[in-house]
Amino acid sequence: VLNFYGMSYGTFLGITYANLFPSRVGRIALDSVLDPTAYTGPTPDLMLSSATGIDPTLEGFAAACEAVGPSQCALAEPKGKPCGYVLTKIQSLFDATNETPLVVPNGDDDISVLTGTAIRAYTLVDLSFPRAYPIVAQYLNDMITAKYVADGVGIDDACSPDTYRGMNMEFSVYIANDGDNKGDHMSWEDMLPAIKEQSDAFGIVFAKDAWPALHFKPTPIERYAGPWDKPLKHPLLLLNNEVDPQTPLEWAQNTADLLGDNAVLVTREGFGHSVINLPSKCIQQITINFFNNGTYPEPDTVCKVDTGLFATTTRKLEDSVDAVEAAREGLAALAAQPRRHRSNALGRVHG
Q1: In 3-state terms, the chain is what percent helix, strand and coil (to 5)?
Q2: What is the Cα Rg of the chain in Å?
Q3: 35 with 107, same domain?
Q4: 129 and 100, same structural domain?
Q5: How many Å apart are CA 148 and CA 104, to the nearest integer?
Q6: CA 250, CA 270: separation in Å to the nearest integer?
Q7: In total, how many domains does the chain have?
Q8: What's the domain range around 134?
Q9: By C-alpha distance, which of 8, 69, 23 is closest to 248?
Q10: CB of 276 within 8 A of CB of 298?
Q11: Largest CB tally within 10 Å, which of 50, 113, 298, 334?
Q12: Which of 208, 196, 232, 258 is nearest to 40 (CA)?
């Protein structure tokens, strides 16, 4: 049997394996769940449905920043400002850089040009990880106040080994492989205004990486698109955040409904991508009990988060930056290792 913890794209791998080999399902937990029917359907529809959590995440980030104040969030100001001012500041930055990119120093003798699209894309990535929220607030505030200095290393460079030659196109390839873009569906041209209406700040940025899938010609021989409700040896444990900018809770709920008695859904309150991005004793204990003892929580359990969104700012901001950079270096080192050294009894895959 397979014991497996799949995160993000790894949840699709997990549910596919479970339905291909239902008698070999051991203890499989899926964190930040891809709805398999949406994912294997038309890509324009997929992108539109996946974007529903983006703006609520940004709004939650801004509201939490205002709540903790300037001592913990660089974008916040002393009390007395009207509610919503942080969100207004961020939106104003995005709007201003649409037409006039920021030119900022890069090191001692170079410059970098930050377009509105680049700023939105960087912010969108980091909003998935609440531990990075103090850093997000700091660099957005530095951009607003003309204090930002580029470090010369992009997020993709920091996460990629020296041997990486993928050009960051994997996302387009695997959604083109797994999706169905041959039949009747919303056109790609119609998707763009629809997703922009859904998220004015991030919609187009969110959709642009999917666009190459429109021109992807190969058809995979072994593409699996269901059925998804085969009786399994053991039910799957589904885990999802209440507000996720990449895999909305609705997807996990749809998947739980699709699987019926073959799944148990647990929701974690709060924001971000992956239920382990903030401390939650409830999530921790459920996961330990599941893998160690094979026990399941009550269906539709809701877990609380044990810390606030900006709690990490009780430490120096530099410590937070160091922690994030260390995590990125760890990812790069892991990716660079030969595959045989990375395998273990408890598979863990994330997108």
Answers
A1: 50, 15, 35
A2: 21
A3: no
A4: yes
A5: 7
A6: 15
A7: 2
A8: 53-145
A9: 8
A10: no
A11: 50
A12: 258
Let me know whether 24 and 70 are in one domain.
Answer: no
15 backbone dihedrals φ, ψ, rounded to 5°:
-70, -30
**What confidence score (pLDDT) does residue 156 get?**
40
Q: Same domain for 99 and 19?
A: no
What lies within 8 Å, CB to CB, of 343 at 6+ separation is none
- What are the DSSP E strand ranges found in the chain? 2-7, 25-31, 102-106, 110-114, 236-243, 263-271, 301-303, 346-350
**CA-to-CA distance for 18 and 290, rounded, in angstroms?**
17
Q: Is there a domain that residue 320 lies in?
A: no
Yes or no: say if 178 and 12 are a contact pair by the CB < 8 Å rule. yes
Please give the C-alpha separations between residue 197 and each of 159, 190, 192, 201, in angstroms, as whole numbers.
31, 11, 9, 9
Residue at a domain's end among 125, 145, 165: 145
Residues with pLDDT less than 50, the chain = 153-161, 164, 313-324, 326-351
Of the residues 271, 286, 305, the one at which a domain ends: 305
Q: So what's the pLDDT on residue 112?
A: 86
Q: What is the pLDDT of residues 21-76, one digit of tens each?
A: 999 999 999 999 999 999 998 888 888 888 899 999 999 999 999 999 999 999 99
| Cβ contacts of 154 within 8 Å, gap of 6 or more | none
